[in-house]
Amino acid sequence: MHYIAFLMDRGMAPYRDVIDVNMPGTYGTEWAVMHVFGPNAMAWRIWDIFLACAATGAMMVIAKPVDRLAGLFGGGLFFLLHGRDGIAELGQRDLLMATALLWSTALLIRSARKRSFLCLALGGLLAGFATTVKPTSVLFWLAMISFIAIQDNGPSKVRWKFFVIGSGAMLVAPLTAALALYRIHALAAFWNILTGLIPYHNAMFRLPATYFASHLIPSTLLPLSLTMLTIICLRPRRGMEFVSRDEALILIGVVCGAVSFWVQRKAFSYHRYPMNAFLILLVSLVLFKAIRDRNATTTVRGLAMAGVALGAFVLAPQCLVRVHELSSSPNDFSNLLQRDLLRLGGLDGKVQCIDFTSGCTTTLYRMRLVPATGFLYDCYAYGPDTNAVVREYRESFWRELTRRPPAVMVVSNQSCSASETDGFKKLERWPALADMIRDQYVLEKEVIPPDAVRWVRQVAVPHRYRIYLRR
């Protein structure tokens, strides 16, 4: 996404010139970050820390009636949980989505308490922005404003006004994004990708529902979650009211986060960030409320203190240790490829990546090189010939390749199918491309990065790449 923001400055428009499945709000944010903090790696570290601080601030605002320390505790734990996922997850869209939704929730709670339609509208604007980053954000906002409207004891006219203002404000950002795309003549291309390539992308690499059922909550948060449930069952309550209105609202965020995680069906750890944020906030509220509750039993207060101690002195250090285990290598895929391309020289607009996410486009971004075509990902072209989306993708990709054949092709062995043992054989599923490379290009070298990948806790075998030069 950093690369696409760079290409925007070079006159290329997302969807129209660069084929990608991310949403418009993502590109706008990435472009803004690059122009505020700079285009280097440090900028994304600053942005990541900014998002973490913003998320913590939202949690502290929500937790104010209980204890601001609850928000600080929750925000710190959320940031550490994010940090242990590694440098590859810096500034993830789901982190931005979670932060925006936390603030929209804080504003929604304030609007309900103060009868402030201004706070409601601001919350809707933020939720709408989150929707332009990840469409599942709409679930959070509609569910939350519906809950508040139903809980309101005022006249039905006021409740309808509340719902209409909240829903209308949410539409502002998506409509603004649509207008911006229309002005750069990319709206039709976006609609084509939204209704074709994005559903196809979502169907790729999907894991079974049983996997999500067993991996819904991170194992790190299970002890705290069980402690929270025990406290909720044991603490004093009025009748059958197990949770307060604010806690119920946060619980809705947890449920919507779980739905968002399930809908994406990729099981990437960062897809859980919105759910994790609301779950950690709910845990923090319950724990600190129990500690401050003078009517709480010794057992409940003891459980709450134990939960806080567990988070502060066990889970937080574990996350820090995990961060220390992560490392990059000077001989990784991108660094080695960068050296090879520098040696060849003069490649702006002449390199085509036949890769998905191994690091070819990352290398082009580091070198500030425009690609030969706007097609950055190859896996969409290897589906069945009977699929209309695959056929259209191939045809468009092929037109670009043959219109101005690239001087260099970089082919990675990243597999696009679970059944492939040799990723280079993926070309056999697109015979025209395989023939083009065989007939018009010569293999210059094949590179096997020597060091294992340690960007996540599991050590992974690095992807290889081949460089082909046009005859």
UniProtKB/TrEMBL annotation:
Keyword Transmembrane: yes
Transmembrane stretches, start-end: 44-63, 117-150, 162-182, 215-234, 246-263, 275-291
Protein name listed in UniProt: Dolichyl-phosphate-mannose-protein mannosyltransferase
UniProt keyword Nucleotide-binding, yes or no: no
Keywords linked to the UniProt accession: Membrane, Transmembrane, Transmembrane helix
